[in-house]
């Protein structure tokens, strides 16, 4: 079994970060490699067993199942169902840990995965998931959360006089 671990401190409160991560179907809203994501019809994105379908920006498709979800502990676990990677028994965990100083100005995000490589010791796959999936995803999550909220604007219903 191979394991990949990426951990980073984000300058955002744990509840704010968890809100984005916990929206299991909305990963395309923050992960730069995911072009589209959706839940299968009728699924509740916090219910273990729900399935998300992903399309990467280069057109590959993946299907992932939510294995467990704990809003209080801010942890979700998901596993590959269908994917193009040379691994089996892939299971990943995303965990958000509140700032230990009690001010909740930052948090730690841990993204880990365990899997069986189809060949070799898994170092190539471990490097890929850490360097090409998890790290860019967490950097992008930080960037999305750092953006000021866009005010809601209502389109004008009149046109300018000529």
From TrEMBL:
<dbReference type="InterPro" id="IPR019587">
    <property type="entry name" value="Polyketide_cyclase/dehydratase"/>
</dbReference>
<dbReference type="InterPro" id="IPR023393">
    <property type="entry name" value="START-like_dom_sf"/>
</dbReference>
<protein>
    <submittedName>
        <fullName>Polyketide cyclase/dehydrase/lipid transport protein</fullName>
    </submittedName>
</protein>
<dbReference type="Pfam" id="PF10604">
    <property type="entry name" value="Polyketide_cyc2"/>
</dbReference>
């Amino acid at each position: 079994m191979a394991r990949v671990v990426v951990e980073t401190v984000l300058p955002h409160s744990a509840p704010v970060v968890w809100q984005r991560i916990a929206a299991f179907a909305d990963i395309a809203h923050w992960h730069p490699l995911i072009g589209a994501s959706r839940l299968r019809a009728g699924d509740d994105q916090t219910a273990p067993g729900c399935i998300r379908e992903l399309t990467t920006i280069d057109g590959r498709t993946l299907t992932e199942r939510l294995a467990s979800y704990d809003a209080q502990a801010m942890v979700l676990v998901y596993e590959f169902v269908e994917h193009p990677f040379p691994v089996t028994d892939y299971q990943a965990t995303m965990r958000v840990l509140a700032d230990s100083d009690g001010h909740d100005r930052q948090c730690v995000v841990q993204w880990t995965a365990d899997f069986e490589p189809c060949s070799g010791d898994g170092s190539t796959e471990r490097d890929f998931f850490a360097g090409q999936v998890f790290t860019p995803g967490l950097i992008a999550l930080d960037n999305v959360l750092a953006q000021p909220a866009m005010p809601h604007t209502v389109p004008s219903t009149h046109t300018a006089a000529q």
